[in-house]
Each structure stands twice: as C-alpha cells, then as structure tokens.
C-alpha cells in the first residue's frame, strides 16, 4: 500500500525547496552585479555563472513539491535566462556548433559538458586536450568554451527515473525506453519517436511541455540550433553517454503551432589516436 504523506510533510519539503531557490537566486544576483561593476574576462565568466544561478533560483522558488509548473510560468522563467546566455555567447564570439561530449573526455565519467568552438567550422578536440582543461571555461588548442549544457541536469533526472547510468546502456535501450519516459513517467509529451540512420538520430516530440518555449526560442538560432533547448540538449547528453561519441544538434525545428518538435542529431566520428 502506498504511504500517504501529510500536508505538513509536503509543506515542509516545499519550504525547503523555496528557501534553496531564494539562496541560489541571491547568489546569482550578487555574481551578476559584481560582473557589471568590474569589466574583465573574469567578469564575463562571473556573469555567465550568475545567469545560471538566477535561472535555477527562479525555478526552485516557484516550484511546488509534486506539482507541475504551469506552462506559461515555465516559458517566462526559462526564456529570459536562455536569451541572456545566447547574448553572452554571441558577444564573446564563440559561435561554432556545440558538441555534447561523451564521458571519455573527462576524468569523472558522470561529468556532462558541451564544447563550443571559437570558429564556425567544426573542430573536434581530443579527449586528452579536454581532460587537461576540463575545469576551465575557456579552452585553448582548439579555442572554445567548455560549459554545462542546458539539458545536463535533465539527463541526470532521466537516469534517476530509469535507475541506470546511460554509460551502461546503448542506443537501442534509449529507443525502447525514452518514449515511456517522456509519455508515462514524466508526462511531458503526448508522443515521442526516435529513429536512427547511419550516424544520424532523428527525434520527434509531440505536444511537449516545452512546445511554447521552443516556438518562442526559435528566435535564438545561435543558442537553440547549436547548443539546443533544455529537452534537445538533454537528449544529446543521453546520446553522448550511450554511444560514447560526441553529439551535435544538427537541426531543431518546431511546427507552426509549436506543438511538435523535430530534432536531428549527428554522431561525430573521431580521428584515430596518434600512435
């Protein structure tokens, strides 16, 4: 028999979540204000961190335990933060196609990060190059940014619900389990389809909880076609862990009414290691 929790227990958990949200929100605001006062390369990093903290602080502040965030609230809290991140990436001129990296690029296999090349042409760094600089924001040789993608924490939620690390499974497992995860477990889509062809993975999501956000966010092509929205980025992270290869979001489109999202991922083939 399922144990029923009292209103007091639920209220207590909600208060903890909100308090955590306020703390993160204040830290983010402080980091952002400091970055405005001091203009330097380090202040740009501080601004990037501050925006991320503000985003998650807002989410935690308004979230209610075991209740869904209303769709319009999700749009409002997420869109502004992603727009600011898009602007920062653009101003720093790191405009290459983002690459969601697999675990072998990091010393800790559960690390999830994406590499954004400085130049438009796609140049894949080696695992050795990333491991030497994996705690840095700015990467040299090849030059680029190394950041936590917007879908990193969602991927970890996927793994928690499925009770497995995606490093232990393969692409076939994702094809079989992602539809149930999206439709039944999380209830964030009416339908989910995943197909593979050679080095491409095609995903279609119908009536996503992110449908309005994705439609609005198509006005941010530098961010959404390269780094991806939270859902497309989360799937890219899952693919990188499952295949053990770098993943690029090749194309991201939404239907005119925003209800359907189509994503094309490319699995990158790496150059053989030098002997």
Can you tell me about this structure?
The chain has 275 residues and is an alpha+beta fold. The chain folds into 2 domains: 7-67; 95-270, Muramoyl-pentapeptide Carboxypeptidase, domain 2. It is built from 9 helices and 8 strands. The protein has helices spanning 7-37, 41-62, 71-91, 127-133, 152-162, 171-185, 211-217, 221-224, 230-243, and strands spanning 99-100, 114-117, 138-139, 144-147, 191-197, 200-206, 247-254, 260-267. The protein has a 4-stranded antiparallel beta sheet with strand order 1-2-4-3. α1 (7-37) packs antiparallel against α2 (41-62). The longest helix has 31 residues, at 7-37. The protein is globular. Residues 1-14 and 64-69 have low confidence and may be disordered.
Topology, pairings included?
Blueprint: H1 7-37, H2 41-62, H3 71-91, E1 99-100, E2 114-117, H4 127-133, E3 138-139, E4 144-147, H5 152-162, H6 171-185, E5 191-197, E6 200-206, H7 211-217, H8 221-224, H9 230-243, E7 247-254, E8 260-267
Helix pairs in contact: 1-2, 2-3, 3-7, 5-9
